[in-house]
Amino acid sequence: MEATNLTQKRYGYIIQALAETSADKKRSGDVHNALKILETARKVLAIKDWTNFSKADNGLDEEQLFLIAEALEQRAERREIFGPTYDARMMRETAALVREFKRQREVEWMKQRFQEGIA
Question: Under a CB-based contact definition with an 8 Å cutoff, are residues 18 and 26 in contact?
Fold first, then answer.
């Protein structure tokens, strides 16, 4: 699997997007999803080698990768309206990287299942 490297700035966008999205969910009364997003943020913060984010053993499951990408997209939409637009573009690019990593992991998982004769 090809590595998905994140710069420190992109890693910061992930943490920022998760924190802001969790706070928005909590304010709107969606406490369950706010807690899921907060737990995802904790796992992201626990990743020691953020430059090799794509490691399969980084502790994030597919749902959490989806939450990261969605949080980045929501924050990007907000930034496009209220600025700065550079951050919006970078958040969208980071979301695309996370989605690509998720896709690569799913392909790798399917290959393993076919090799094992399960799928």
Answer: no
Percent of the chain with pLDDT over 90: 54
DSSP code per residue over 60-76? --HHHHHHHHHHHHHHH
pTM higher than 0.90, yes or no? no
Torsion angle of C-alpha atoms 68, 48, 89, 84, degrees rounded to 10 = 100
SS3 17: helix
| CB-CB contact of 18 with 41 (8 Å) | yes
Tens digits of residue pLDDT in 63-100: 999 999 999 999 999 999 888 888 899 999 999 999 99
Q: Can you read off the two tokens belonging to residue 111?
A: 């290959």
Residue type at 97? L
Instruction: Give the separation between CA 108 and CA 93, rounded to whole angstroms.
Output: 23
